[in-house]
Amino acid sequence: MVEPTQLTMDEYAILKRAMNSPSKWLVFTDQYMETVKSLAHVGLLEITRESTGQVKDGYVVWQMKCRLGLPRWAHEAVERAQKEQPQ
Questions:
Q1: CA dist 37 to 2, 19, 52, 64, 66, Å?
Q2: Confidence check: pLDDT of 49 > 60
Q3: Handedness of CA 35, 37, 38, 43 (dihedral sign)
Q4: d(CA 10, CA 25)
Q5: Is 51 helix (H, G, I), strand (E, B) or coil?
Q6: What's 23's DSSP letter?
Q7: Cα-flanking dihedrals φ and ψ of residue 72, to 5°?
Q8: Confidence grade of residue 5 (pLDDT, cut at 50, 70, 90)
Q9: Which among 6, 78, 72 is positioned nearest to 40, based on CA atoms?
Q10: Taking the model in full, what pTM does it have?
Q11: Tell me, what's the pLDDT at 71?
Q12: Alpha-carbon gap, residue 76 to 55, rounded angstroms
Protein backbone atom coordinates (compact mmCIF):
# COMPACT_ATOMS: atom_id res chain seq x y z
CA MET A 1 0.00 0.00 0.00
CA VAL A 2 1.26 3.48 -0.86
CA GLU A 3 1.82 5.75 2.11
CA PRO A 4 0.93 9.44 1.68
CA THR A 5 4.56 10.40 2.29
CA GLN A 6 5.54 8.34 -0.76
CA LEU A 7 3.43 10.40 -3.16
CA THR A 8 5.09 12.97 -5.37
CA MET A 9 3.59 16.45 -5.55
CA ASP A 10 2.19 15.65 -9.02
CA GLU A 11 0.56 12.43 -7.77
CA TYR A 12 -0.94 14.22 -4.77
CA ALA A 13 -2.30 17.04 -6.98
CA ILE A 14 -3.89 14.58 -9.42
CA LEU A 15 -5.52 12.55 -6.63
CA LYS A 16 -6.79 15.71 -4.98
CA ARG A 17 -8.35 16.90 -8.25
CA ALA A 18 -10.04 13.52 -8.71
CA MET A 19 -11.35 13.58 -5.14
CA ASN A 20 -12.79 17.08 -5.48
CA SER A 21 -14.31 16.61 -8.95
CA PRO A 22 -15.36 12.96 -9.45
CA SER A 23 -18.04 13.81 -12.04
CA LYS A 24 -16.27 16.59 -13.93
CA TRP A 25 -13.99 16.27 -16.90
CA LEU A 26 -10.40 16.83 -15.82
CA VAL A 27 -7.83 18.02 -18.33
CA PHE A 28 -4.25 16.77 -18.29
CA THR A 29 -1.43 17.60 -20.65
CA ASP A 30 0.61 14.78 -22.10
CA GLN A 31 3.40 15.29 -19.56
CA TYR A 32 1.11 14.15 -16.72
CA MET A 33 -0.43 11.15 -18.46
CA GLU A 34 2.31 8.75 -17.34
CA THR A 35 1.61 9.76 -13.72
CA VAL A 36 -2.16 9.40 -14.21
CA LYS A 37 -1.73 5.94 -15.78
CA SER A 38 0.63 4.78 -13.01
CA LEU A 39 -1.86 5.89 -10.32
CA ALA A 40 -4.57 3.97 -12.17
CA HIS A 41 -2.30 0.92 -12.47
CA VAL A 42 -1.78 0.66 -8.70
CA GLY A 43 -5.49 1.20 -8.03
CA LEU A 44 -5.37 4.65 -6.44
CA LEU A 45 -7.18 6.28 -9.35
CA GLU A 46 -10.06 4.94 -11.39
CA ILE A 47 -10.51 6.39 -14.88
CA THR A 48 -14.20 6.17 -15.74
CA ARG A 49 -14.15 7.92 -19.14
CA GLU A 50 -11.34 9.09 -21.35
CA SER A 51 -11.13 11.12 -24.54
CA THR A 52 -8.45 10.83 -27.16
CA GLY A 53 -5.53 13.21 -26.99
CA GLN A 54 -6.04 16.49 -28.82
CA VAL A 55 -3.47 19.14 -29.62
CA LYS A 56 -4.22 22.49 -27.98
CA ASP A 57 -1.76 25.38 -27.72
CA GLY A 58 1.08 23.08 -28.74
CA TYR A 59 0.35 20.45 -26.04
CA VAL A 60 -1.40 17.13 -26.31
CA VAL A 61 -4.39 17.42 -23.98
CA TRP A 62 -6.38 14.55 -22.51
CA GLN A 63 -9.80 14.84 -20.92
CA MET A 64 -10.97 12.19 -18.50
CA LYS A 65 -13.34 11.57 -15.68
CA CYS A 66 -11.57 10.09 -12.67
CA ARG A 67 -12.42 9.16 -9.15
CA LEU A 68 -10.34 7.88 -6.30
CA GLY A 69 -9.78 4.17 -6.54
CA LEU A 70 -9.62 1.63 -3.80
CA PRO A 71 -6.60 -0.59 -3.29
CA ARG A 72 -7.05 -4.18 -4.46
CA TRP A 73 -7.39 -5.47 -0.87
CA ALA A 74 -10.34 -3.12 -0.32
CA HIS A 75 -12.10 -4.39 -3.46
CA GLU A 76 -11.55 -7.98 -2.29
CA ALA A 77 -12.98 -7.17 1.15
CA VAL A 78 -16.10 -5.65 -0.45
CA GLU A 79 -16.55 -8.72 -2.67
CA ARG A 80 -16.20 -11.07 0.33
CA ALA A 81 -18.72 -9.07 2.33
CA GLN A 82 -21.21 -9.16 -0.55
CA LYS A 83 -20.86 -12.95 -0.88
CA GLU A 84 -21.34 -13.45 2.86
CA GLN A 85 -24.55 -11.41 3.06
CA PRO A 86 -27.73 -13.49 3.16
CA GLN A 87 -29.94 -13.05 0.13
A1: 15, 16, 14, 11, 11
A2: yes
A3: positive
A4: 18
A5: coil
A6: T
A7: -55, -40
A8: low
A9: 72
A10: 0.63
A11: 67
A12: 39
